[in-house]
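Example record for the data management plan.
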Amino acid sequence: MLEDSDRQNAQLALILLVPAASIGVAIALFIAPGTIGTIVSVLCGVWLLGLPIAWSVLGDRYQLHLSQPKHQELLAGTVLGLLMFGIILGTYWLFGQHWIDGIDAKSKVQQMGLSNPTIFWIVQAYFVLINSFIEEYIWRWFVYRKCEILIPGTGAIFLSALFFTLHHIIVLAAYTDWRGVILGSLAVFLAGVIWSWCYLTYRSLLPSYISHAIADFALSIIAWKTIFS
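Corresponding structural encoding:
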């Protein structure tokens, strides 16, 4: 049975971690774009990356381990990822391309130094292969497990998906209009629900990581078309 100290521990962890993602993107995209915004964004990223490990190992005495990949996990991640890939591109071709301000998006990309095609794809490779895993590690492995302490079962799935969505709303607001923000936020929330469910079901990051990476590749295609077409 969980003690009050366990719940307080989980609450504190979430308070310290969750806002950092929104702070980083808000400063980088709106408040101080450019060098200052990039520095703050990197510092917030380091915090998001380091806090879960430090908290889990030093505070919770969690034993880190790698599990053997299972065929069922690989299959689930691939199938879910391909479904998301099709839905993302289909939604973009039907609606999203009309809601994105291409000129404003190109301006923000230039401020971030991503207007060179080679640099663009290097950064996208990072987001598809590495950042997708980092996000799963943060939002499923750590945040979902803390939410599970506060609200067991299905409630934790929706709470962690909500936390996962918050900073994405800010990102969407920087590149699309209100329709894109609403539709994109709903899509991110549903993806968070699916990936949290995957972690609850398999207790492994592999299914959510695979599907997340495939979904992010679809977003990279959209970004390429928006910026360079």
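Summary line stored alongside the record: The chain has a mean pLDDT of 90.
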